[in-house]
Amino acid sequence: MKTVFVLNGPNLNLLGSREPQIYGAQTLADVQALCERASAANGFALEFRQSNHEGELVDWLHEAGQLHAEGRLAGVILNAGAYTHTSVALLDAIKGTGVMLIELHISNVHAREAFRHHSYISPVAKAVMAGFGVNGYALAIAGLAGMAVAA
Ligand code: DQA
């Protein structure tokens, strides 16, 4: 059974109370439960994590890269939060590991402030998911399963 890594960046631990008009009322624990269900339905094991620290996200991408090298990774779903718009280190980690990665945003970043329109992740992402609310996580997991079938 292959593993899907779902990695969440800064401030996503505040889901449920953080700007609910933008990010909704569900907590990160709710999102984890949703990802557990979606992973089980698609035959994946799940690693679900959140960090407010850029370097920890880099370390986790390296860990996913190790699984990828062993043929045991389904893919990575990354909501890098604000690091999406700032982090060359995350870009380099994705490039350096060669993991298949879906960039995810709960909100439609393109309908928001101009500084959210640029992503360092998009050029090295297989796909981008934005604006589906937290249900985007389940859609992205199903999308990874579809890509595995198509491959
Ligand atoms: C976000 C969008 C980012 O611009 C923001 O900094 C976040 C969350 C989203 O899920 O919509 O922290 O990635």
Give the strand tally: 5
Which range best describes the helical content: under 10%, 10-25%, 25-40%, 40-55%, 55-70% or over 70%?
A: 25-40%
SS strand fraction: 15-25%
Order of helices and strands: EHHEHEHEEH
Principal-axes shape call: globular
Structural class comes to alpha/beta
Rg for CA atoms? 14 Å
**Are any ligands bound, and if so which?**
1,3,4-trihydroxy-5-OXO-cyclohexanecarboxylic acid
Describe this entry's structure for a reader.
- This protein has 151 residues and is of the alpha/beta class.
- 40% of the residues lie in helices and 19% in strands.
- The chain contains five helices and five strands, in the order βααβαβαββα.
- A five-stranded parallel β-sheet has the order 2-1-3-4-5, sandwiched between helices.
- Helix 4 links the parallel strand 3 and strand 4.
- Helix 2 (28-41) packs parallel to helix 5 and helix 3 runs parallel beside helix 4.
- It is globular.
- The chain starts with a strand and ends with a helix.
- The model has no long low-confidence stretch (mean pLDDT 97).
- 1,3,4-trihydroxy-5-OXO-cyclohexanecarboxylic acid binds at residues 11, 79, 81-82, 84, 105-107, 109, 116.
